[in-house]
Amino acid sequence: MSLPMSKLFLLNLMELGVTVFRGPDEQVWAELATHALPELLGRVQKIPEFPAEPVEALAETLASRARSGDFPQLETEYVRLFIAGPGGIPAPLYESCHQDTESRTMGQSALAMRDRLARAGLEISLDSNEPPDHLTLELEYLFHLCAEEWSGETASEEQAARFVGEVMLPWVRRFRKALADANPDPAFLASADIVVALLEAVART
Asked: In order of start, what are the domains of the chain with their CATH numbers?
């Protein structure tokens, strides 16, 4: 069963979010700049219900870095923002770190995500010591839900929209604000804006 272009586009944005927030190396950044983003930019202009601005912003900043060969700086910035910044990590990539009632890894959010992945028969593809509520794992789980629901492979309806509305959107919006407050490289802020926009789009489906 073929999917509408708009839904295929959302699946592609999930893949983009996974790639960026998993920490691409110089070669992957270059591939995003020269292949993936130009294609996504051409497609978003044909989908009026999706905001083109964050896709345009990411395409422009990566195109600029491709011309200057300045991708290694993005690897350094990734470490500062998400791994080990001076004075702490400005924007951790874990749901547990962006809750009103808890701020630690392997909290209830991580345990709940571990159970969801297990029920879906999905294995964690990050390092074995990574908590399962990592942003990229939640995006991969969302991809799984959407791909099954939109292709008609499952009788479950609206599970993806519920997961987005009840779980992902609240904390990812807080993550995006924490990231913006850390004066990030525009590539990462645009990527966070893309993730928020795609989650809002899934919530509406």
From this structure: 5-204 (1.10.3480.10)
